[in-house]
Amino acid sequence: MSEGTLIVGGSQAGVQLAVSLRQLGDTSPIVLVGEETRPPYQRPPLSKEFLAGRADLESLAFRAPGFYADSGIDLVCGERVTGVSLSASGPAGSGVATTASGRELPFDRLALTVGADARRLPVPGAHLGGICYLRDHDDAVDLRARLATATNVIVVGGGFIGLEVASAARAAGPSVTVVEAADRLMARAVGPVVSEFYRRAHRRRGIDVRLSAGVTGFEGERGQVTAVELSDGTRLPADLVLVGIGVLPRTELAEQLGLACDQGIVVDAHARTSDPAVVAAGDCTVQPHPMTGQGRVRLESVQNAVAQAQVAASTLVGRPNGATPVPWFWSYQGDLRLQIAGLSAGHDDQVVRGDPDDESFSVLYYRRNRLLAIDAVNRPADYMAVRKALGRGATITPDRAGDPAVPLKDLIGDPAATAQQAEA
Q1: How far apart are CA 269 and CA 327, in angstroms?
Q2: Which of 122, 208, 247, 334 has the lowest CB atom count within 10 Å?
Q3: Cα angle, residue 295 at apex, residues 251 and 297 outer, rounded to 5°
Q4: 110 has which bridge partners?
Q5: CA-based angle 41:259:95, to the nearest 5?
């Protein structure tokens, strides 16, 4: 009797992989196991709609309660897989996993969709009450409750999560300060023009932004945080701290199996690990650059989790599909909606479209006159046009992209773009 597929991790990628297997006609058993006691749910809204009180856990669920049973997916909640081994004599990819409670889960095929954990800040006082991280529903519930009575909120980290929480916190009324160790905000995701815009925009909304500022420790009284100490000696009063300094991919199980890991579980374009019988998808992985195929990148996004899980499912059923859609990301910080398509790393030119002072503009990034990516702030039409162009392998010439009176969609694939492409 077939043991079927074991998917470890009740994440976006894990749910999508199970759904995709069924959509591909796979009828063998599927076990989806997650360590949280509740069914899988969306995480991105936790720092936005949920924190602002506009969403609850029920509305964030990926699927209706009866979906999993109706689809023949055995959903196991509240079980953390602590060990996994592959069979030495059985079919390739088969084995057994063990949970913390001692439960054994045999499988014929294994998929790792274990996600990532919040990176911790290892400084004196990090154990104090009122110092929060945001990765799951319980974290969000705790943070939302604390915000209701907070007076001085310090956000450590000027990335997507940090700035989203800062926006929600400021709307609730308390004083908010963002402390970022780098010299600009969201440095891993956007270019300098967009970073500077967000610094100014958040300051206009009453959020203090401190750049090039490291945190060296926390002070407290009676077990609760009272201040944040910075590397320049500054002491910031605080009764609530949110630490959002990135994530660490969960690689423990992959390492048990001897799979290659390098700041994540290494996979190829077909979501295969270094053992081709085992697949992995989502935030736990590093993969070939989706646009160039050169080097490895880790993409933390819903879009990547879904796309990579679909590829992994195709691989498991023996129909590998290496299609790599254009990466896209978003971050809604109050009324500032940032949408990104493509990857701007390595650009040698950029075009600013519109006026950042109007809080509606976009930046297009190029390398050798070839369109790489866009950062769009409150300009969804620009974002969609570039995403479409990148998806078609087309370009939009930089000499025409800067005119905000001309819709970008009208510039995709025009004769000038074709000539530029040929010259490149």
Answers
A1: 14
A2: 122
A3: 45
A4: 6, 278
A5: 75
In this structure, how many other beta carbons lie within 10 angstroms of the beta carbon of residue 319? 10
* Integer Cα distance of 98 and 399 in angstroms: 59
Four-residue CA torsion sign, 55, 61, 65, 66: positive
CB of 61 closer than 8 Å to CB of 141: no
Give the residues across from 104 on adjacent strands. Answer: 98
- Which amino acid, one-letter code, is at 13? A
Tokens of 146: 């604390």
Amino acid letter, 241: V
Q: Tell me: the pLDDT tens digits for 143-183?
A: 999 999 999 999 999 999 999 999 999 999 999 999 999 99
Q: In a 10 Å sphere around its CB, with 0-12 CB exposed, 13-18 middle and 19+ buried, how is residue 396 labelled?
A: buried
Please, what is the average pLDDT of the chain?
94
Q: Is 82 exposed, middle or buried (0-12, 13-18, 19+ CB in 10 A)?
A: middle
C-alpha 89/C-alpha 79 separation (Å) is 27
- Rounded mean pLDDT, 24-36: 97
Token readout for 2 is 């077939």
Q: What is the pLDDT of residue 384?
A: 97
Closest listed residue to residue 377, CA positions, set 174, 163, 212: 163
In terms of DSSP H, where are the helices of 287-407? 302-316, 380-391, 398-401
